[in-house]
Amino acid sequence: EAQVTQNPRYLITVTGKKLTVTCSQNMNHEYMSWYRQDPGLGLRQIYYSMNVEVTDKGDVPEGYKVSRKEKRNFPLILESPSPNQTSLYFCASGLSYEQYFGPGTRLTVT
Amino acid sequence: GENVEQHPSTLSVQEGDSAVIKCTYSDSASNYFPWYKQELGKRPQLIIDIRSNVGEKKDQRIAVTLNKTAKHFSLHITETQPEDSAVYFCAATPREGSYIPTFGRGTSLIVHP
After folding, report:
1. Distance, in angstroms, between B82 CA and closest chain A CA?
2. Is B28 or B107 the better-scoring residue by pLDDT?
3. Which of B49, B100, B106 sits opposite A42 (nearest CB)?
4. pLDDT number for residue A14
5. How far is B48 from B61, CA to CA, in rounded Å?
6. pLDDT band at B29 (very low <50, low <70, confident <90, very high)
7. B24 in Cβ contact with B92 (< 8 Å)
8. Alpha-helix runs per DSSP H in B1-113
9. Between A33, A40, A102, which is nearest B43 by CB?
10. Minimal CA–CA distance to B77: which of B22, B32, B26?
11. Burial call B36-47: b when 16+ CB within 10 Å, e when fewer
12. What is the distance between the terminal CA atoms of chain B, rounded to a whole angstrom?
């Protein structure tokens, strides 16, 4: 089954404790990205990757890191999470224009 | 960069009525305009899209129109049903070969039975 998976789905953590949210797709898509969704602000892009070893900043990259060592994986890293990073995070992948979203990760930073 | 404005932020209709959501964009190079539907607690999913060489596209009860001169596009849902209740996002994708969409802030559509 073609899909985008994210783990964990829910995470509660404390300020400053490094965390990684994994994203994996099995559709051989070149394009992958990360979004955060906040009430009233819609979907804002954090980082995107056009291919392996190629990443670039989106609209709200501050406080986040990504890596793309393999085509199928695109982890999101929060080196020192802060409460303002409490949000719903979506990973997405695509071959061209259409994007396929993962199920989302709800992150709470206390 | 691209800027996408979406209105209204909330839309409440009675079952059977029509619903219209409007978006404007700023980058004249944008050439692909998808609409995503996000049901409560679920991921956004593509429901319809339109490219810049087309003025209108229909798929059963939903349709999208595009006015490139005015830089705006709209989603039309006819004969709304309670299962149409969701958040709808428009997006604009600029530059051929760059699949980097900019999303609007979303419209919460509520269809009352």
Report:
1. 22
2. B107
3. B106
4. 97
5. 11
6. confident
7. no
8. none
9. A102
10. B22
11. bbbeeeebbebb
12. 41
Q: How confident is the model at residue B69 (pLDDT cuts 50, 70, 90)?
A: very high
| B31 token code pair | 């050439």
Q: Do B43 and A41 touch (CB under 8 A)?
A: no
d(CA B91, CA B51) in angstroms, rounded, equals 12
B89 interface with A at CB cutoff 8 Å = yes
Name, in order, each residue with C-beta under 8 angstroms of B6's C-beta and a sequence gap of 6 or more: A42, B21, B22, B23, B89, B90, B104, B105, B106, B107
On the question of pLDDT at B100 being above 80, the answer is no
Give me B50's structure tokens. Answer: 């339109």
Q: Which two tokens stand for residue A57?
A: 């900043």
Which residue shows structure tokens 């979004």? A35
> Two tokens at A79?
């080196």
A57/A1 Cα distance (integer angstroms): 30
Nearest CA in chain B to A5: B43
What number is the average pLDDT over the span B20-32?
A: 93
Structure tokens at A70: 């393999």
